[in-house]
Amino acid sequence: MKVLLATDGSDQARATTDLLYRLVPAEAEVILCSVAGESELPSDDSAPGALSQLNEALRAEVDRLLDSEARRLEKAGYEVVVVSRQGDAADQITQAAAELEVDLVAVGSRGLGRFREYLLGSVSQRVVRHSPCSVLLGRPVPEGDEGPEPGSLRVVLALDGSDQSRVAARSLARLAGHGRFEVQCVQVIPAERDWGVDLARHMAEVRRRDEQEAIQFLRQTAAMLQTAGAQASSHLLVGEDPAGELIEHARRESAELLVIGNRGITSIDRFLLGSVCHKLAHHAPCPVLLVKGEGLPA
Known about the structure:
This protein is α/β, with parallel strands linked by helices. Helix content is 42%, strand content 21%. Strands 3-2-1-4-5-10-9-6-7-8 form a ten-stranded mixed beta sheet, sandwiched between helices. The chain starts with a strand and ends in a 7-residue tail after the last strand. The relative contact order is 0.15. It has eight helices and ten strands.
């Protein structure tokens, strides 16, 4: 597996690195990437050479950051390649992901480091939208915790029966062979509605069929994850707001990672569509792994 890890030295970036240790096998290749934006000074007319000196100082700071993070990753057993780029952060990250043909982009959901324009919410949002591969959005561990914990990684896997959610499940199963995962397979179905007398019987039958299919899919997915070495359970939720239900479930269960397919298209209206993924990426109480395309390799 090849991972592009974007960093800016912020708590968000370091939390993303900590999560990688628990999620990605040590034999993976990690491309450590940092992006320095151009200085905001309009010109150096008033202080000749000031602009170039500032940019040189910024590049030197980036190099120090990359060297420190590279040593940390190598100590954990990863093969590390260091890349330093300059320009618009989101553009540079997505371009690097495409050029280097990586399987996963790992980025903080909001950077608070010394580089003002790097890894802000708008940048991570653009990376999610335009990345050619799966994206891991990191978030800091709760205050008082220090780094990754030794226990199992608590994961909520959002499902809807679509092909893309199956890809997400298979990707998680491949990762589960390299770590200790406690996975809750979760699917949300709509709440019952008052359809009126004429439609009530028909819609009750439709609901029973959808519920049975969801339960079967959840159990099959949990069994696959158990075979891969994870502890897995299935959970069927009811509600009209799938993203909201998933967010509350993840918060209630103290999830450390929420895994979703990039796009789900099923008879369950609007589940895991772009707007739902957008809401989860912005409001999930934990890191989010958004699985795209063919998913993650073994």
